[in-house]
Amino acid sequence: MTEVIKILLVEDDEDDYFLTSDYLAQCESPTFELTWVTNSIDAVDALKKQSFDLCLLDYLLGAENAIDVLGVLKSNQFNLPVVILTGQSDATVDEMVMRAGAADYLQKSEIESPRFMRTIRYAMVRRDIENERIERSKVEQKNKAKDKFLAHLGHELRTPLTSILGYTELLIDDARNSPFQQELSIIHSNGKHLLSLLNDLLDMSRIMAEKLELNIKEVNLSAFLTDIHSLMRLNAKDKGLSLHVVSNTKIPEFIHTDPTRLRQVLLNLISNAVKFTDKGSITLTITLDESDSDDSAHSLLRFSVEDTGIGMPPDKLVNIFQPFEQIEDVMRANHGGAGLGLAICKELVTKLGGDINVTSRLGEGSIFTFDINPGDIKSQPRVELELGQIQPVESSSISLNVTGRVLIVDDLREIRRLTGHLVSQSQADISYAENGVKALEAVLQADEHNQPFDLVLMDIHMPVMNGIEALHAIRRHGQDIPVIAVTAASRKGLRESLIREGFNDVIGKPIDRFALANLLSQYLPPGNHVTFTNVEAQIADMPMDKPYAPEDNILSQYPTELAQVKQQGSTSENGDAQPINKHILVVEDDEDAAELLQLFLSHLGHTVTTQYSGADALQAAEEQSFDHILMDLTLPDYDGYDLASELKQKLPQAMLTIVSGHEADTEAMSSIGINSALLKPVTKDDLASVVG
């Protein structure tokens, strides 16, 4: 089919029209369809009636010139290439029309020359390129609008979830509501499920926007798989299922991958297997597929998750990895989910250097198989898979055959109590300290009395002396006891940073009791008798010959540490460190969220001033001094980052934390001096981790 190019000729000279028309009519390919008008008004009318591929525009049209006409065309938003026809060469005129938006210019004497055709073709090519650019821009704008919508949706959903989960936690913690514990737990569980769905949605958004980055590191494969087994076996057991982890081949001792994303894929697939299996078992199989050559780059590590569940018909397997696809509406009703889990798995596996597929038979079960690139494993020894020894644990309790002495360090009494309760399921002897100073005193005093601790669980954010400072002080005195960092923070690279500081391991808040059980099994000696103190006991109750007293404490022997302590915090008359009461400014336009933040912070012992707009927050900063500012990014009268910048100028000494449903911009945080960010919904532990 012959190409037809529609040309609008704007020319007031009839002879030039005939000249142009005759030349174009002689061309065999492409075919030209020429429309002739003599002025800008008629040109606009013609362009409104039909579309043209190109406009040939005479430079002089009576009282008008080409620059005037180009302005008219532009004002009417006509997007087509315009080639200016001039009677004579004039460099100044040529430059002017190009600046005005012309695609090219041509002398009328060249209309019958090959240059005329080249000019038309070049203009058409430039038009196509420009149209592609415009379409890309439109797509980008749509994607930006979608991303903005999803970010806004995340914020709008996280804000009420903060209230739902926060107030439910407060009610669950209140012993007076014990008759309603089951109902409150159901509310809390469904709230967390809703949060999980939201996180899936935002994860998929980041993947589609190509904003998800991998964090590649060295991973001990056996330890990693032990962790997966430990996390998921109780889920399976609760449904009467068994979970097996096996290997068909020897595996490399270490691989290089993103453990967080690999864990996300495996947990998703195993969770799905448990969800859709009512009897039988789930088996995770690992196979190393090595190339025949010595090039380890061609080696793949294969994971297979097989279940004995309901299976899927062949016609449902085609779109199983597409977003928002799920087997049947009835399944969606029975099992929940937004249909994003498998789509996220596929994208993550692709990023990890592999592919994922599924085989299934209706009523018999499914097998999900995926590969990843294990990195350079040429020098890695091949070993048998050996899962770490995990003691049989009931879902309702933990009983570990370990003993030893454990020091729990946390400034929050309720957190000390909870952690102590978890540890008390073992056979360990437990002691407590409420800050880094008390922890250092306890460690040194225990060593002096030949009763050293076997393990320290150290909170990071504490008044008087924080966990990192306490660890350094302990190490300076030659104490090499294992110290595990306990933190509610979850920023990227935090674990590696804490390990570099000298911690032996890291566990997150809220503490997972089974993860804690694994750590206790790793660091405490085996035992066969139960000897733990009451969870209400404090450090002063330690069975030591020399009682703890401020005027005669172990730190008095170390003037450096003692001086540091005096600088960092005050003590009461009986020598106990006093919690630091901070004056905190909360800037939050949602009244429920603001009230919850105030409740949490008040429980932590702080004084709170709440403002609901940026202007009121700035006014408060003028009139009062604040130790810490907690602010939302979305406010009715201020851009969040602009407000943060102004608040930092008014209160340069104050710590500033973003508390928002939007993920904070790290570059903006760094340039403004924002200290930290929390993503809604926030817990009391989250606030304690940044405020103290």
Oligomer: single chain
Tell me the CATH topology of the largest domain: Heat Shock Protein 90
Distance between the termini: 75 Å
Q: Could you give the count of β-strands? A: 26
**Second rung of CATH, namely the architecture of the largest domain:** 2-Layer Sandwich
CATH class of the largest domain: Alpha Beta
Strand content: 15-25%
Low-confidence stretches: 327-336, 391-398, 529-552, 568-579
Compute the number of helices. Answer: 22
So, the CATH homologous superfamily of the largest domain? Histidine kinase-like ATPase, C-terminal domain
Name the overall outline. Answer: elongated
Major sheet details: 5 strands, parallel
Structural class: alpha/beta
Number of domains: 5
Round the Cα radius of gyration to an integer and report it.
Answer: 35 Å
The percentage helix is 40-55%
Question: How would you summarize this macromolecular structure in one to three sentences?
Answer:
The protein is built from 22 helices and 26 strands. By secondary structure, the protein is of the alpha/beta class.
